[in-house]
Design goal:
The chain is of the alpha+beta class. It is built from one helix and three strands. It is elongated. The protein binds zinc ion.
């Protein structure tokens, strides 16, 4: 499945903001107001839900 989901959040990896939970992955900032930063691994469910909102309706 090809996805251009990366455009939907700002990659903060260059800022090296590590996840407080896994301390492995860099946090990403979701687009939109009040979304805040999430870990793509620990908050994968939230990330998928966020991304789903961008996908066109079937
Ligand atoms: Zn994490």
């Amino acid at each position: 499945m090809t996805s251009d989901w990366t455009k939907h959040y700002l990659d903060l990896s260059h800022l090296v903001i590590r996840c407080k939970k896994c301390r492995t992955h860099a946090m990403v900032m979701l687009s939109g107001k009040g979304r805040g930063t999430i870990c793509p691994e620990c908050d994968s469910a939230k990330l998928q839900k966020q991304l789903a909102a961008f996908l066109p309706a079937p």
